[in-house]
Amino acid sequence: MGKRILKYWIENQCNQVQANGVTLAKQGAWEKGQGFIMDNRAIAIIEDNRDDQLVILEAIRGAGIQNALKFFTTGTEAMAYLTCCEQYFESLPVLIFLDLLLENEDGLTFLETVRNHPATHRIPVIVLSQSARQRHLQESYRLGANSFVAKDEQLSRFNANMQCILDYWLKVCRVPVA
Q1: DSSP 129-174
Q2: Are 128 and 98 a contacting pair, CB within 8 Å?
Q3: Would you write out the chain's pLDDT as a tens digit for each of its 178 residues?
Q4: Where are the beta strands (DSSP E) in the chain?
Q5: Nearest-5° angle of CA 37, CA 40, CA 45?
Q6: Alpha-carbon distance 67 to 161, whole Å?
Q7: Do 47 and 73 meet the contact criterion of CB atoms below 8 Å apart?
Q8: Staple partner for 115: which of 71, 84, 144, 171, CB 3.0–4.6 Å?
């Protein structure tokens, strides 16, 4: 019974993503108006604020990246998805964006869980946070974050930062299949 529920949950997540207009395009394709996919695996985004989700979505699409986007509001929900991907031989995400300051959870706990799991420990995790606390920065890197980026209040700077991050992780850097 449990596996059927998990499979349903994965399918439901895919349907939700497609219903929101976020779809998967062909690998390596430059198509007019669609953008570029260097790696056709999804990008996971753990962010509990709906406005921030939309800003991140627009920044990624504005950078010309058309990978499927998987949005989660909790680390628990995201980890369940990653576990389901592993169990059902689905591709794990190529990249994870993580907000540390989630409403009911600590993003650092999710980061530690991802790094300690054999199937997910290689997925690059980019922390996007409004926290300016040195403790959050140090703890993120200690737990294995690949980058820690402050969410800039100025939209143009945030978009430029996201462009650089996405260019590096999806176009320059080669990320192993987890």
Answers
A1: ES---HHHHHHHHHTT-SEEEE--SSHHHHHHHHHHHHIIIIIIS-
A2: yes
A3: 444 554 454 455 444 443 343 433 323 333 333 455 556 789 999 999 999 999 999 999 999 998 999 999 999 999 999 998 887 778 899 999 999 988 888 899 999 999 999 989 999 999 998 877 899 999 999 999 999 998 888 999 999 999 999 999 988 887 776 5
A4: 43-46, 69-72, 95-98, 125-129, 147-150
A5: 90
A6: 18
A7: yes
A8: 144
Q: Distance between CA atoms of 41 and 56, rounded to whole angstroms?
A: 18
Q: Which residue has the tokens 């993003």?
A: 107
Give the C-alpha distances (Å, rounded to integers) separating 33 from 42, 60, 61, 143. Answer: 19, 14, 10, 38
Tokens of 69: 């986007």
CA 95 to chain centroid, in Å, comes to 5
Distance CA 68, CA 14 (A): 9
Say how far apart CA 74 and CA 46 lie, in whole Å.
6
Q: What angle do CA 69, 42, 14 make, to 5 degrees?
A: 60
